[in-house]
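Retro notes (design track)

What went well: tokenization of the new backbones is finally stable.
What didn't: we kept losing track of which sequence belonged to which structure.
Fix going forward: every design gets posted as structure first, then sequence, in one message. First example under the new rule, 326 residues:
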């Protein structure tokens, strides 16, 4: 039986949206059980459900936190959710809380799998092809990485892309400032040389940021600092373009008519760029499934986050990563 831990206290909207997403998910999955960590008063509508256990918590991990502060917050919903995976009560967790707390807690409590040099914070990105997503890691678990750690990220991303995104032989690229060999940071150059001789990875060379989301690059590997900048810049560009398009079509009656004529195309674009279907970011390489969803997630996003947790657990991705790194 699969059991998933849910940190109900980290969302910007309290537990309301999370509860809605959970109810929606339980309508399509009739067997998975859940342990919900949060304030009991806010979770009353989940009481008396035989598939839900509620654990009362008094603390919320603040957005800005450090490792020692997090480890002291043993009655926080996030700490208890992560610890339930450590104790084997649950096989995975979903949280919308503090990213710093999530990374610190997941790494220190669950720990890396044997021989994994560094856990990779991974996010699937929408691409030009609405049926494909690009897996990018690391997106901020650490600021700097070694060449060997980048090779580890390439392995982790390949396994995720194959097992969860359904790509049989995922192509792997290093994020760089040029496609030629010899471009990029020193650790990127080191990883390039190692990956050329790594037969288990379908390494294709370097890729520039402008080409990452064209639908032909399956896994993008980066050190944490530029990876996080790529993430934030992409999100910002998407928001800016959305506002500019809306403004352009609201100018006058003719532009509004133009929007109606092009509505089908814009609906398809909106569906393609809907980040909610990704389910959130994943910390790969640790001993358990751990998913960090957006703090402002709505019911649909939480639905997809829980679906992703189930899929990763059901596909035994932790076992497959462990086997790959033996």
């Amino acid at each position: 039986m699969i059991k998933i831990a849910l940190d109900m206290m980290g969302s910007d909207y309290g537990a309301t949206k999370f509860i809605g997403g959970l109810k929606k998910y339980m309508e399509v999955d009739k067997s998975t059980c859940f342990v919900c960590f949060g304030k009991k008063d806010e979770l009353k509508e989940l009481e008396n459900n035989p598939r839900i256990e509620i654990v009362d918590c008094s603390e919320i991990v603040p957005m800005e936190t450090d490792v020692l502060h997090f480890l002291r917050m043993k009655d926080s919903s996030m700490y208890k959710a992560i610890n339930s995976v450590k104790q084997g009560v649950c096989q995975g967790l979903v949280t919308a809380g503090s990213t710093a707390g999530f990374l610190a807690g997941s790494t220190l409590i669950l720990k890396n799998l044997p021989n994994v040099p560094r856990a990779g914070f991974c996010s699937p990105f929408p691409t030009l092809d609405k049926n494909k997503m690009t897996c990018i890691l690391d997106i901020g678990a650490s600021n700097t990485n070694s060449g060997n750690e980048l090779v580890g990220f390439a392995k982790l991303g390949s396994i995720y892309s194959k097992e969860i995104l359904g790509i049989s032989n995922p192509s792997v690229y290093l994020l760089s400032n040029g496609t030629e060999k010899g471009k990029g940071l020193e650790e990127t150059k080191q990883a390039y040389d190692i990956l050329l001789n790594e037969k288990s990875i379908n390494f294709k060379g370097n890729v520039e940021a402008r080409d990452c989301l064209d639908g032909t690059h399956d896994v993008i590997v980066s050190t944490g600092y530029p990876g996080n900048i790529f993430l934030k810049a992409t999100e910002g560009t998407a928001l800016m373009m959305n506002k500019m398009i809306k403004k352009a079509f609201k100018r006058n009656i003719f532009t509004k008519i133009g929007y109606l004529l092009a509505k089908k195309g814009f609906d398809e674009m909106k569906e393609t760029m809907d980040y909610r279907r990704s389910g959130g970011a994943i910390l790969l390489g640790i001993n358990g499934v751990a998913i960090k969803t957006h703090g402002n997630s709505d019911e649909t996003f939480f639905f997809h986050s829980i679906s992703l947790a189930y899929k990763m657990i059901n596909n035994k991705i932790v076992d497959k990563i462990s086997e790959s790194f033996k």
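Added context from the reviewer: The chain has ten helices and eleven strands.
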